[in-house]
């Protein structure tokens, strides 16, 4: 069993989500957090608000402070237009490592620059 909650979420995603499908990754994170352990991510309900803001503003550049497991980064990146970028900053090395793997698995690594 993975040591931290964040590592357990990652393992669940790697085992159950479809590689390269950001929505599948988000769905599996939501499922894990609903059925197994709470985690401090935006989640599916509040995530819809974020989706609406992104669709209304259609940004070229986004800054996120606090990456955690990468949930919001994936949620944002999947809606960015071609050439748009998300810079996300995480101060915790372990969380940054999990987020990097999650972002890569979701297939949005080309739109996300994670800074630790």
From TrEMBL:
- Family named by the database record: Belongs to the class I-like SAM-binding methyltransferase superfamily. Cation-dependent O-methyltransferase family.
Main enzyme class? transferase
Cite the entry's keywords alphabetically.
Answer: Catecholamine metabolism, Methyltransferase, Neurotransmitter degradation, S-adenosyl-L-methionine, Transferase
Question: Which protein is depicted?
Answer: catechol O-methyltransferase
Q: Record keywords: Transferase included?
A: yes
Q: Does the keyword Methyltransferase apply?
A: yes
What's a BP term from Gene Ontology annotated to this protein? developmental process
Single GO molecular-function term? Answer: catechol O-methyltransferase activity
- Kindly list the organism's lineage: Eukaryota, Metazoa, Chordata, Craniata, Vertebrata
| Annotated Pfam families | Methyltransf_3
Q: Write the Enzyme Commission number(s) for this entry.
A: 2.1.1.6
GO CC, any one term: dendrite
**Native source species:** Pyxicephalus adspersus
């Amino acid at each position: 069993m993975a040591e931290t909650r964040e590592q357990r979420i990652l393992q669940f995603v790697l085992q159950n989500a479809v590689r390269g499908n950001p929505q599948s990754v988000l769905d599996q994170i939501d499922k894990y957090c609903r059925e197994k352990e709470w985690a401090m991510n935006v989640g599916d309900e509040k995530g819809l608000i974020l989706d609406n803001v992104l669709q209304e503003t259609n940004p070229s550049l986004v800054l996120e402070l606090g990456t955690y497991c990468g949930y919001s980064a994936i949620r944002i990146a999947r809606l960015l237009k071609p050439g748009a970028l998300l810079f996300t900053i995480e101060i915790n090395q372990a969380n940054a490592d999990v987020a990097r793997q999650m972002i890569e698995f979701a297939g949005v690594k080309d739109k996300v620059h994670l800074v630790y």
